[in-house]
Design a protein that fits this description.
By secondary structure, the protein is an alpha+beta fold. The protein folds into two domains: 76 residues, Nucleic acid-binding proteins (OB fold (Dihydrolipoamide Acetyltransferase, E2P), Beta Barrel), CATH 2.40.50; 142 residues, no CATH class. The chain is built from six helices and eight strands. A five-stranded antiparallel β-sheet has the order 3-2-1-4-5. A three-stranded antiparallel β-sheet has the order 7-6-8. Strand 2 and strand 3 form a beta hairpin. Helix 4 crosses helix 6. The chain is elongated, with a radius of gyration of 21 Å. It starts with a strand and ends in a 17-residue tail after the last helix. The site of zinc ion has 8 residues, from loops. Zinc ion (ZN) binds next to loops.
């Protein structure tokens, strides 16, 4: 049996036995999988920090017949600024839940890995959690192969312009005002502004899925570019509406309980 190495972000940790925990990693090379970690309850354990969620590390792993074993670990990037931000931690928990619940094991998803890592960076430099959540959902639907085309009528090919488009959530198709079907029980209304904003989300996701942010300067660059432009555009209504539509879409096509995955941590005593 051999050994291998992955670059990964820890997403879940379960105490299984006296001297062993099972850590779920989301890695660049192998996608999601579990490793056993031993001896982390000893005070001097060198593997104990590997269990911490807010970092990306190099994980050295030995193959076993049962669950593979973590043998060594080295930190690569630490997202320490997020420790004081319960909303950011809630959002990271939300993303982890998608990976844990909806992705198959041992299947590499580099575009999703990139965006999750990049979101860790972005959360450290701005507090637009609502927008960042939308970016993640957009990317996840894309990876799942069910992201709807929002700017072109599925019936006549007209592009979004004057009137509201309607998105049929069940079908994953949009219709222009001329082609609106009569029996739409799962319809969501998309104003031209919402469609325009979705194009902005798409453009940022296209960038974020393609490469990894490695420094705070890069993260600040995106924040002072894309996010600052959005703030200036003042698309509050559009941001909220697209967020609603995407959650509805995730809920219909992925899991009914997705809205409850975003759990804000309450401070002790409340
Ligand atoms: Zn049409």
């Amino acid at each position: 049996m051999g050994t291998y190495r992955v670059k990964a972000i820890p997403i879940d940790c379960i105490d299984t036995r006296e001297n062993e925990v099972q850590l779920t990693l989301f890695s660049e090379e192998e996608g999601k999988f579990r490793v056993a970690v031993r001896g982390t309850k000893k005070v001097a354990s060198s593997l104990r920090p590997a269990l911490d969620f807010l970092h990306e590390g190099l994980f050295f792993i030995a193959e076993r017949r049962t669950v593979d074993l973590l043998t060594e670990w080295a930190p690569l990037v630490e997202f320490n600024r997020l420790r004081q931000d319960p909303d950011a931690i809630a959002l990271i928990g939300y993303m982890s839940r998608f990976v844990l619940t909806l992705l198959p094991s041992r299947s590499s998803e580099i575009h999703l890995y990139n965006i999750i890592k990049n979101i860790h960076f972005l959360l450290q430099v701005n507090n637009h959690h609502d927008i960042i959540k939308t970016l993640f959902e957009w990317q996840f639907l894309k990876v799942a192969g069910i992201l709807p085309v929002l700017d072109v009528c599925a019936e006549c090919g007209a592009e979004s312009g004057d009137g509201d488009f309607l998105l049929d959530i069940a079908e994953g198709a949009v219709y222009c005002p001329n082609c609106t079907p009569q029996n739409g029980e799962t319809m969501s209304r998309l104003s031209p502004g919402v469609v325009q904003y979705s194009e902005r989300v798409k453009s940022l996701c296209d960038i974020l899925e393609g490469s990894q942010i490695e420094t705070m300067e890069e993260a600040e660059g995106i924040s002072s570019g894309w996010f600052a432009a959005e703030r200036q555009a003042g698309r509050r209504y559009e941001t909220r509406e697209l967020a609603k539509v995407l959650v509805r879409f995730c809920r219909y096509h992925l899991r009914e309980d997705i809205p409850f995955w975003l759990v804000r941590l309450q401070p002790p005593g409340i």
